[in-house]
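Tutorial handout. Part one gives the primary structure; part two gives the three-dimensional structure as tokens.
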Amino acid sequence: MPVTQSGSQPLAILGGGPVGLTLALLLAKRSVASIVFDARTIEQARTDQRVLALSLGSLQTLRALVELPATALAPIRSVIVSSVGDFGRAVLDDDELGAETLGATIRYGDLVATLSAAAEANELITLRRPHKVVAVRQSPSSVEIEFENEQRISASLAISAEGFGHTGAASVSHAAVVADLELTGIGSDEAFERFTREGPLALLPLPSSTAATQRRALVWCMKTAEADRRIGLEDSAFIDELIAHFSENALRVVTLHARRRYPLHEQARDQLVEHRMVYLGNAAQTLHPVAGQGLNLGLRDGVALAEQIGFTHVEARDPVQALHRYAQSRRVDRAAIVALTRFAPAFFSTRFSPIALARSIGLTALAVVPKLRREFARLLMFGVRF
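Part two.
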């Protein structure tokens, strides 16, 4: 790539996951060219079977860019929030909110394949896979990016949109046990967020549920040692321990598939911008999976960044001039979601009686005060908006 003035160089997006690809498509809508680099091949990305929870706001963002495959989506129309051993149970429902849905789930590989196809078809986006970044060097007017094959390119901005933020060792004292389940005794399109003393436990809808059985993705957070123990259990023993954490007497697990463990890294950068380097998605913050907010926050960051860069493009200004306003615009939403995901698990896991009482009162308030319930649901669906 020839070196040009920084304002006319393409933007380099480091990370071809959902956040990086969505950002590239958002920029292209504003006539801004970008090059997306990812260390994995598209075939490797397609095999990633992690389940992603998309809020309604994220669905709206994505549907404006691509046609999401209906067969890969599982709608979430209600979320039942409860805590083991506490009174109070709140139900967030799409009918009450007047929304088409609260959100949906999709496999990581299915989402990346859809976004990649749209990016490949866009003349303003160049995809480079596999390209592993080994160094980023900044100068006053550009960024030089070096790859494992010793190739180098210059760009006006480098946007790191994947991987940890390299801010130090992240905590790995907790892990999530995930699995695919087929269950009976629950309603269609229902999701559960069940807080236990060990950590939050979520059941999220999966596609291909039937009238007889409902398919759900399990995300069960706990200390690493306990996760290791549960991974080693026989299926029947694991199911018994899972069911013991639910008060729904009719709930039954018919089948259990693909049980595995992921370490829970949590970190958040103090600064999203370093001159011509911008951190987005997991590179900016890696959140606890409670409430499924990580990807949704990253997509909202991408929307705001593309908007600010678009303004500079229209005015033929250096895109670096957009970054301060971008960082300022994301401060409140980011702080609120980071705090929610950081403190909610500890709040619900403690056995300290005054806090346990506060938990029950809070859940009861959500259950009986419609306005509070609606505002909480809107926070999860759209983040903090002004």
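Part three, for discussion. The chain has twelve helices and 21 strands. The first helix runs from residue 18 to 29.
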